Description:
Helix content is 26%, strand content 29%.
Amino acid sequence: MPTCKTARVDQVDVRPLTPDDSAECDAIVASLPYHSGDAGGRAACARAVRESPGYVACEAERVIGFVTSQSWYGVAVEITWMAVHADRRRLGVGRRLIRHLVDNGPRNLRYMVVTTLSQATPEVEDGDTYAGTRRFYEREGFEPIWEPKGWWNDENQAVLMLRRLDAP
């Protein structure tokens, strides 16, 4: 199994995702029961961490976050899955993963896209919700641009968010 370079808990190292990281990525998803309540989504994420390109964030030899991606047309990268372990959220790990993805993307990278749960889907207002996820992406420069009706299913409305990387 690949190791992470950092030995100190207060440091985070980012390295390429490998199939050997899949069990730790599965554990990260399991730590987020609200965000990973759909069995089909968990299965798709499990496939992605085993087959897709991506990165993991490590802290003291422990994988604490991951991102998988898909490149499009040499100018765009889609974040297909991203999660940070429940006990390491809101500490800058997700931001670090996104910045690593940008810095290591195609040379002509101009856009990043991500799909998450739309505000049109009712949620319980307390706790760790998708409202927080959307705020995170907005702080990272993503803007909601499209809510494709029925993209996921009738109960869960998706929102596509775009970040321009070549904006003046």
